[in-house]
Amino acid sequence: MDIEGRVAVVTGGARGIGRGIAAALAKAGADVMIGDRLDDPRIGSEATETVKAVEAAGRRAIAMRCDVTDPADCASLMQSAVEKLGGLHIVVANAGVQSTIPVLELELAEWERVLRVNATGTFLTCKAALPHLVEQELGSIVNMASITGLRGSATMAHYSASKFAVVGFTESLAAEVAPHGVRVNCVCPDGVRSEMTLGLLKQHTGIEDDAKADALWTKVASDRAPLGLSVEPSHIGEAVVYLCQADTLTGVALPVTAGAHVK
Ligand SMILES: NC(=O)c1ccc[n+]([C@@H]2O[C@H](COP(=O)([O-])OP(=O)(O)OC[C@H]3O[C@@H](n4cnc5c(N)ncnc54)[C@H](O)[C@@H]3O)[C@@H](O)[C@H]2O)c1
Predict the structure, then answer these.
(1) Residue 149 Cβ contacting ligand 1 at under 6 Å
(2) Is the CB of 11 under 6 A from ligand 1?
(3) Gap from CA of 192 to ligand 1 centroid (Å)
(4) Distance from Cα 12 to the centre of ligand 1, integer Å
(5) How would you list the strands of the sheet with 61-65, edge to edge?
(6) Measured from the CB, is residue 66 less than 6 Å from ligand 1?
(7) Which residues of 167-179 are buried (b: 16+ CB within 10 A; e: fewer)?
(8) Domains in the chain, start-ordered, CATH in brackets?
(9) What is the mean pLDDT of each run of 10 residues along the chain (263 residues)?
(10) pTM recorded for the entire structure
């Protein structure tokens, strides 16, 4: 698929990996509709930065309030992309939440919160987009899984379960909609610098200073990866662009880890 002139929807696009994806798609020529929790003022101002990043690449961007756990929000996000940006070709179900808690201490409410946003939110995002993509017999969906969607990790059972669900959903949906010209893939990052991961690093180390946490992240991430690189949101954006362009790829769960998954 040539991305030039296409319209992309990115959920959770206000910050972090979502912003990296929105910027990379814009650089490749797409207009971008960002869906995020804009009712939170902090997320609202973060979303303005993503809009600016897309516009800096010479493309149009709109940020819209969308809670991916609400089917009506997902439907109006897709409808707005069609009405305001003139189409819907690429859908990136990126919105997600994370926490690290051992199963012995994990409350049902936290299990359900994480599964609802990460797994059900991915289903609802895809479900809202599919009628349009299937009807036009063209579309690329990229879901945000994780390396914990391919193997388990201590203190992350709930998160890992939600991401295994994303991988299984992606593979199954890919098989269903391939005859309609719609491809469905997912990305499986390990650690990527973002508000989510820096927040967890601060929580576990007790570091409060942003610059110190950032520097520690760079060291830990590059020491951990065989390629000696810290994976950034822009790298995930490049992987999403590649999956959208690659006409023979569907049902793929692509690790983007600087080699950390084969260590
Ligand atoms: N950062 C990592 O190391 C890493 C690794 C693997 C996978 N991921 C996945 O990548 C995705 C993005 O993570 P990130 O690191 O950028 O996190 P982040 O917290 O920085 O960004 C997540 C975004 O999703 C939005 N969001 C959360 N709940 C939402 C909801 N119900 N509806 C709409 N938007 C919602 C948030 O407002 C935020 O803008 C997530 O799915 C995450 O699980 C991240």
Answers:
(1) no
(2) yes
(3) 11
(4) 6
(5) 61-65, 31-36, 7-11, 90-93, 139-144, 182-189, 253-256
(6) yes
(7) bebbbebbeebee
(8) 7-191+232-251 (3.40.50.720), 193-230 (no CATH)
(9) 98 98 98 98 98 98 98 98 98 97 98 98 99 98 98 97 99 98 98 93 94 94 94 98 98 97 90
(10) 0.98
